[in-house]
Design a protein that fits this description.
Family: Belongs to the TrpF family.
Distance between the termini: 25 Å
Keywords: Amino-acid biosynthesis, Aromatic amino acid biosynthesis, Isomerase, Tryptophan biosynthesis
Low-confidence stretches: none
GO molecular function: phosphoribosylanthranilate isomerase activity
Bound molecules: ligand LGQLAAA5
Mean pLDDT: 94
Number of helices: 7
CATH class: Alpha Beta
Helix content: 25-40%
Strand order of the largest sheet: 1-2-3-4-5-6-7-8
Number of strands: 10
CATH superfamily: Aldolase class I
Organism: Methylobrevis pamukkalensis
EC number: 5.3.1.24
């Protein structure tokens, strides 16, 4: 299973092309008015269509579209589904397990539930969600004074997640950037990585060069990890 790379908080067609051209398979569109990356429903529809357009010039598959919401009610989720038909709904608020399940069943798409990680107890919570079959996005816990629950460019102690028996199921986020993503991938071998602030020059302004550098670094570290795992498997068979 190849590493899923998600570039989040895109708000222009050009930045979607940069992400797709660099080899990121998943893009995230933020619908949260307090975010510098907020896009309204009309913009979300246009951007989602652009992300899915055939792009022989980029020689890549259509991108998977994730719509990011924070404690959205059913009316808002229905409006997002009608406008942009996202492949995944990212839940970045206080949604509990029952709410996440209700959303999956009502809207017929998988959710990606964001959980803030600051200590071993948070990892225990993540374990419970994983057991319940919900895909997780493990992010830094926002400080109390934060005006939004994510997109803050904050990292956390990744070594906490080595206690998670994850089978490459979760996506890692929180303060990832082109310089640290390889280390995170080597340490954890997550199923995916997600970045927003780390590929920007200012909040909400994406950088083509930083997106390309992020994707290249993440991909190379994942391929290195895959080769090492294959080598270990060969040795086990020979032994
Ligand atoms: O990007 C935002 O402004 C945002 C607002 C509200 C909830 C989540 C948000 N962003 C998501 O947070 C993680 C980590 O972001 P970063 O790389 O540390 O900036 C990622 O999923 C963002 O899309």
């Amino acid at each position: 299973m190849a590493l899923e790379i998600k570039i989040c908080g895109l708000s222009t067609n050009d930045s979607i092309d940069w992400a797709r051209g660099a080899g990121a398979g998943t893009i995230g569109l933020v619908h949260f008015p307090r975010s510098p990356r907020h896009v309204d429903l009309d913009a979300m529809a246009t951007l989602a269509a652009h992300a899915r357009r055939a792009a022989p010039d980029l020689a890549v598959e259509p991108a998977r579209v994730v719509a990011l919401t924070v404690d959205a009610d059913d009316d808002l989720l229905a409006a997002i589904m009608a406008a942009a038909a996202p492949d995944v709904l990212q839940l970045h608020g206080h949604e509990d397990l029952a709410r996440a399940r209700a959303i999956e069943s009502r809207f017929g798409v998988p959710v990606l539930k964001a959980l803030g990680i600051a200590d071993a107890a948070d990892v225990g919570v993540a374990r419970e969600w994983s057991k319940a079959g919900i895909r997780l996005l493990l992010d830094a816990k926002p400080p109390k004074e934060a005006t939004r629950p994510g997109g803050l460019g904050r990292t956390f102690d990744w070594s906490l997640l080595t206690a998670l028996d994850h089978d490459r199921s979760f996506m890692l986020s929180g303060g990832l950037d082109p310089d640290n993503v390889a280390e995170a991938v080597r340490l954890l071998r997550p199923g995916g990585v997600d970045v927003s602030s780390g590929v920007e020059t200012a909040p909400g302004i994406k950088s083509r060069n930083r997106i390309a550098a992020f994707v290249a670094a993440a991909r190379a570290a994942d391929e290195e990890g895959a080769a090492a795992a294959a080598g270990r498997q060969r040795k086990d068979i020979e032994a």
